[in-house]
Design a protein that fits this description.
80% helix; Prefoldin; Helix Hairpins; mainly alpha; unfolded protein binding; chaperone; PFD_beta-like; protein-folding chaperone binding
C-alpha cells in the first residue's frame, strides 16, 4: 500500500473511533432521558395524590426503613422542587442529545469522505503498479 493509502486508512480508523465514542455518549444520554422521564412521571403522580389531600391529612415519607410523618405542605413543596430539578435535568439532557446527534452526522460525513478517498487511492495504486 502507498503512504497516501496508509495515511487515509489511519485517519479513517481515528474518525471511526471518534464516531463510536459519540454514539456511545448519545445512547447514554438517551438512557438518562428515559430515566428522568420516568422520575418526572412518578413525581407527577405523587403531586396529583398530594393535591387531593387536605392540610390536616396525614402524609408519611419513607426514610430508609422508617415512615416519618410529614406536613402536607412540606411534602408538596418537596415534590415541586424535585419536579423542577428533574425538568431542568431533562432540558440539559435534551440539549446534549441534540448536540451529540449533530456530532454523529458530522462524523458520518467525514467517514464517508475518508472511505471515498481510500477507495480512490486504492484504485490509483492498482493502476500505477507495474504489470508482470
Amino acid at each position: 500500500m502507498t503512504n497516501m493509502t496508509e495515511e487515509i486508512q489511519k485517519n479513517l480508523k481515528t474518525e471511526l473511533d471518534k464516531y463510536k465514542q459519540v454514539q456511545k455518549d448519545f445512547h447514554k444520554a438517551l438512557s438518562q432521558r428515559q430515566q428522568l422521564d420516568g422520575q418526572l412521571n412518578e413525581n407527577i403522580a405523587v403531586k396529583k395524590e398530594l393535591d387531593l389531600l387536605k392540610s390536616e391529612d396525614d402524609v408519611f415519607k419513607l426514610i430508609g426503613p422508617v415512615l416519618i410523618k410529614q406536613d402536607v405542605e412540606e411534602a408538596k413543596q418537596n415534590v415541586a422542587k424535585r419536579m423542577e430539578y428533574i425538568s431542568s435535568e431533562l432540558k440539559r439532557v435534551e440539549e446534549l442529545i441534540t448536540t451529540l446527534d449533530k456530532k454523529q452526522d458530522t462524523h458520518r460525513e467525514t467517514l464517508e469522505k475518508y472511505q471515498q478517498m481510500f477507495q480512490q487511492a486504492q484504485i490509483k495504486a492498482s493502476f500505477s503498479q507495474p504489470k508482470a
